[in-house]
Amino acid sequence: MKLVIIDYGAGNIKSIQFAFKRLGIDAVLSNNVDEIKAADKVIFPGVGEASSAMKMLQESGLDKVIPTLKQPVLGICLGMQLMCNHSEEGNTKGLGIFNVDVKKFSNSVKVPQMGWNVITDLKSDLFKGIKNKEFMYLVHSFYAENCDESIAKTGYEIEYASALLKDNFYGVQFHPEKSSLAGEQILKNFLELKTNN
Amino acid sequence: MLTKRIVPCLDIKNGRTVKGVNFVNLIDAGDPVVLAKQYADLGADELVFLDIAATLENRGTTLDMVLKVAEQVNIPFTVGGGISSVEHVDALLKCGADKVSINSSAVKRPDLINELAEKFGSQCVVVAIDAKQIDGEWFVHLAGGTIPTEIKLFDWAKEVEKRGAGEILFTSMNHDGTKAGFANEALAKLSELVNIPIIASGGAGNVQHFIDTFTLGKSDAALAASVFHFGEIPILELKQKLKENNIPVRI
């Protein structure tokens, strides 16, 4: 199993690498196009601001590469948001993998949403063994709207898509690497997904 | 529904836990990694490590500790104490810290908040505020609450939010160490004033104090040290009680 975590300068990737290490998998950090293409599974992380993260992707040419990947890809947090059509954060055009827009929570709730909330309406092998209303750790100010590609939902101000799936592309708004045992189970499930590469 | 967070705080000196901790039979109660793992298993929602003797010389030791915690612990954690530069924060985050907490350094140079929020995102910037109520007015204090300033708590809270703080950790010097309850009046006012999460700190003594700070104090999270470290309030029991009182918790 060759697992690559895309290292394009956005965010805390060490935690993700450690989480996989706890599962017995040595993930490679890379921004090398060939290495990413050759991986069995790819993690697309991201923490920070959308437009600057997108800029970093463009600088390394990864914005063109990621949508063409054939193996299972898991976008986490901002990574997932960048896989959408458009984000209100910095008026950023996304990679357009998920046909949905990313909006900002209004001031009727505290922003960012920070802490543990539940995921419901689970629809994918990614959630094998995960019970409905399992708690996940989230930190975010922007959210993907509910849509046909939702495979999990979470409620905060409104009900939004806390996980998305399109073909081989998975995205989760929460941080499985920080979500205790249930989060580890999701990462394990991702590792066990069939590889089409 | 977003749940209220229970946050044990561990004091660290030279990479080791300092305050006595004896809530379970630990082989090495001074090992932050062992403790952190225990707390994660017992249901803590996140952890705060406070480097109480942070100096330039022992920075490497702390980074090493952060790396070890990140390797082993599967819940989020914040590191605070003696952080005053973008480079230092960069190093901490690269070692796997999820958030950093800044305090005196933010008061001395408020632009630090903007710089950190721009470079790393608001989500990892916790601004800790120590304040003391003097003649009815809350004033910000520095250096662990020892040095008073003229800065008013609520003005400062507004400013740190505007500058990009993702969260405020508020410690009432009047309540800290008293075990008589959190500063709920000030906390509720803070919560109404700013639109970022507020962590209550200082005064936890019993379960009712937690219920009060989540209801009357409108806190988003509650931090405590000794009541957890000495097993006076087992976290799971606390959460069950909170749940019985209709306070949403992860259980």
UniProtKB/TrEMBL annotation, chain A:
A Gene Ontology biological process term: L-histidine biosynthetic process
EC number: 4.3.2.10, 3.5.1.2
Pathway where this protein functions: Amino-acid biosynthesis; L-histidine biosynthesis; L-histidine from 5-phospho-alpha-D-ribose 1-diphosphate: step 5/9
Catalytic function, reaction form: L-glutamine + H2O = L-glutamate + NH4(+); 5-[(5-phospho-1-deoxy-D-ribulos-1-ylimino)methylamino]-1-(5-phospho-beta-D-ribosyl)imidazole-4-carboxamide + L-glutamine = D-erythro-1-(imidazol-4-yl)glycerol 3-phosphate + 5-amino-1-(5-phospho-beta-D-ribosyl)imidazole-4-carboxamide + L-glutamate + H(+)
Superkingdom assignment: Bacteria
Active site per database record: 77, 175, 177
SUPFAM superfamilies given in the database record: Class I glutamine amidotransferase-like
Keywords: Amino-acid biosynthesis, Cytoplasm, Glutamine amidotransferase, Histidine biosynthesis, Hydrolase, Lyase
GO MF term (any one): glutaminase activity
CDD domains: GATase1_IGP_Synthase (cd01748)
Subcellular location as annotated: Cytoplasm
Keyword Cytoplasm: yes
One Pfam family matching this protein: GATase
Coiled-coil stretches: none
InterPro entries for the chain: Class_I_gatase-like (IPR029062), GATASE (IPR017926), Imidazole-glycPsynth_HisH (IPR010139)
Domain spans labelled Glutamine amidotransferase: 4-191
GO cellular component: cytoplasm
Oligomeric form and interacting partners: Heterodimer of HisH and HisF.
Protein role: IGPS catalyzes the conversion of PRFAR and glutamine to IGP, AICAR and glutamate. The HisH subunit catalyzes the hydrolysis of glutamine to glutamate and ammonia as part of the synthesis of IGP and AICAR. The resulting ammonia molecule is channeled to the active site of HisF.
Record protein name field: Imidazole glycerol phosphate synthase subunit HisH
Native organism: Polaribacter aestuariivivens
Automatic annotation (TrEMBL), chain B:
GO process terms (BP): L-histidine biosynthetic process
InterPro entries from the UniProt entry: Aldolase_TIM, His_biosynth, HisF, IGPS_HisA/HisF, RibuloseP-bd_barrel
Source organism superkingdom: Bacteria
Gene: hisF
Family membership: Belongs to the HisA/HisF family.
Matches recorded under Gene3D superfamilies: Aldolase class I
Name listed for the protein in its UniProt record: Imidazole glycerol phosphate synthase subunit HisF
Pathway connected to this protein: Amino-acid biosynthesis; L-histidine biosynthesis; L-histidine from 5-phospho-alpha-D-ribose 1-diphosphate: step 5/9
EC code(s) of this entry: 4.3.2.10
Oligomer status and interactors: Heterodimer of HisH and HisF.
Keywords, in A-Z order: Amino-acid biosynthesis, Cytoplasm, Histidine biosynthesis, Lyase
Reactions accelerated catalytically: 5-[(5-phospho-1-deoxy-D-ribulos-1-ylimino)methylamino]-1-(5-phospho-beta-D-ribosyl)imidazole-4-carboxamide + L-glutamine = D-erythro-1-(imidazol-4-yl)glycerol 3-phosphate + 5-amino-1-(5-phospho-beta-D-ribosyl)imidazole-4-carboxamide + L-glutamate + H(+)
UniProt enzyme class: lyase
Localization per Swiss-Prot or TrEMBL: Cytoplasm
GO molecular function: imidazoleglycerol-phosphate synthase activity; lyase activity
Major localization listed first in the record, in broad terms: cytoplasm
NCBIfam families recorded: hisF
Functional description taken from the UniProt entry: IGPS catalyzes the conversion of PRFAR and glutamine to IGP, AICAR and glutamate. The HisF subunit catalyzes the cyclization activity that produces IGP and AICAR from PRFAR using the ammonia provided by the HisH subunit.
PANTHER family recorded: IMIDAZOLE GLYCEROL PHOSPHATE SYNTHASE HISHF, IMIDAZOLE GLYCEROL PHOSPHATE SYNTHASE SUBUNIT HISF/H IGP SYNTHASE SUBUNIT HISF/H
GO cellular component: cytoplasm
Keyword Amino-acid biosynthesis applies: yes
Annotated active site: 11, 130
Keyword Lipoprotein: no
